[in-house]
Amino acid sequence: MLLRVPISPVQLWAFWTLSLVFFLFLLRAFSRRTSEAGTKRNPRSRFGILLQAIGIAIVGLGRPKPTLPPLGLPGLAGTTVVVLLMIGAIALFAASSSALGRNWSIVARTRADHELVRSGPYAKVRHPIYLGLLLYLLALAAALGHWLQLVLAVPLYLAGTRVRTRIEDRLLEQAFGDRFLEYRKSTPALLPRLF
After folding, report:
1. For the segment 18-32, what is each residue's pLDDT rounded down to a tens digit?
2. What local confidence, expressed as pLDDT, does residue 1 receive?
3. Residues 6 or more apart in contact with residue 182 via CB below 8 angstroms
4. Cα separations (Å) of 167 from 46, 48, 140, 156?
5. Cα 144 to Cα 9: distance, rounded to the nearest angstrom
6. Distance between CA 156 and CA 169 in Å, rounded?
7. d(Cα 122, Cα 57) in Å, to the nearest integer?
8. How many whole angstroms separate alpha carbon 189 and alpha carbon 169?
9. Spatial distance between the Cα atoms of 142 and 149, rounded to a whole number of angstroms
10. Ranges of each domain in the chain
11. Would the pTM of this model clear 0.85, i.e. be above it?
């Protein structure tokens, strides 16, 4: 049986409301895509996507236990955690997909007119969208009270992310050579440097 930590109904409501906002930004990114003539794709990145999705799905397994009073300290704390994580996830995805513009894609690929984006969140990490999705996964765990499932979910998500980042980095190195190598050396893959 999965461990369910009691949650407030408000933290669950906050998560689903902010998830809607997150998915609206995802739809916006899809709608801004243009034709992709001259693309170089790597379909193996789909395996990474699958691992990431399984990690997120594991956190969602099981029913939540919304028994905490919304205005009690534990309920307020849980709601605050969910809201902060979701704001981080939304902000990272919105800023990152906006900075990428037509370069954004679900599957790893480079376009004939691909640009090496180093502005916005890409100035701090090379793969900020995956960091945003990690925040989403943590927000889901907080919203449902499924903290124990993170023991399996986070390693799976990070394994999928590693698959995807390696493939994307390889494609960018092929496209941009020394410019990308310098970027990779100066900019961490997933977690920003604090100092």
Report:
1. 999 999 999 998 887
2. 43
3. none
4. 10, 9, 27, 17
5. 9
6. 20
7. 27
8. 9
9. 11
10. 9-30+41-186
11. yes
